[in-house]
């Protein structure tokens, strides 16, 4: 089992270096810190409040809030039990931008949040599927670009968001 985890860590690190070093440029240095906050709890709360006050999107607001709450609880439980340190705390030669975060990276809460909103938007308004998932994907990439998450952190965040959101949308 240990050798399997070592192989996963090596691949994770290699992929992270592609997102963090290979696409590094001044434009993305400016854009990525802004994009990453689309997955923040403040943005999610504003999204839910704004959609709640529109009668056409009130149900979307309630579903999204439910998905965000449940997926955030799942992310928090996993983070506390796994205790995976963020890449910028371990790896050298990362391009990092210090942003206010805790020490643990697995799974990515910002990515989970962004994909929860994107999934609910896409289920409620199918014509928004491409733009909403493009933006959510950009949030996930920004987390790696900033050196705060490994690709597997982002991938598991996506899976949690998709599963939680789809379940809530189809059960309620």
What this model shows, in words?
InterPro entries: PAP2/HPO (IPR000326), PAP2/HPO_sf (IPR036938). Pfam families: PAP2. It is a multi-pass membrane protein. α2 crosses α7 and α6 (about 110-125) packs parallel to α8 (about 150-170). About 40% of the residues are buried. It is built from eight helices and no strands. The mean pLDDT is about 90. It has about 170 residues and is mostly helical. It has one domain: Phosphatidic acid phosphatase type 2/haloperoxidase (Vanadium-containing Chloroperoxidase, domain 1), CATH 1.20.144.10. It is globular and about 50 Å long.
Based on the structure, what is the oligomeric state of the protein chains?
single chain
Number of helices: 8
Mean pLDDT score: 89
CATH fold topology? Vanadium-containing Chloroperoxidase, domain 1
The major β-sheet equals: none
- What is the name of the CATH superfamily? Phosphatidic acid phosphatase type 2/haloperoxidase
How many separate domains?
1
Give the N-to-C terminal Cα separation: 39 Å
Radius of gyration: 16 Å
What is the ordering of alpha helices and beta strands?
Answer: HHHHHHHH
Shape: globular
**Annotation, overall tally of beta strands:** 0
**CATH level-two architecture:** Up-down Bundle
- Kindly state the percentage of residues in helix: over 70%
CATH class group:
Mainly Alpha
Question: How large is the share of residues in beta strands?
Answer: under 5%
Low-confidence stretches: none
Class by alpha and beta content: mainly alpha
GO cellular component, one term: plasma membrane
Subcellular location: Cell membrane
Keywords: Cell membrane, Hydrolase, Membrane, Transmembrane, Transmembrane helix
Main location: membrane
């Amino acid at each position: 089992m240990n050798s399997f985890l070592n192989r996963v860590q090596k691949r994770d690190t290699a992929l992270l270096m592609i997102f963090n070093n290979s696409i590094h440029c001044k434009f993305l240095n400016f854009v990525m810190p802004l994009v990453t906050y689309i997955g923040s709890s403040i943005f999610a709360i504003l999204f839910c409040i704004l959609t709640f006050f529109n009668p056409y999107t009130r149900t979307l607001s309630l579903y999204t809030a439910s998905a965000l709450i449940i997926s955030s609880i799942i992310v928090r439980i996993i983070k506390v039990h796994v205790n995976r340190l963020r890449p910028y705390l371990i790896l050298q030669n990362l391009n990092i931008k210090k942003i206010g975060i805790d020490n643990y990276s697995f799974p990515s809460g910002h990515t989970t949040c962004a994909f929860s909103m994107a999934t609910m938007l896409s289920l409620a308004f199918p014509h928004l599927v491409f733009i909403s998932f493009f933006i959510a994907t950009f949030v996930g990439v920004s987390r790696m670009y900033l050196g705060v998450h490994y690709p597997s952190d982002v991938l598991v965040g996506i899976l949690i968001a998709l599963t939680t959101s789809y379940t809530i949308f189809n059960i309620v």
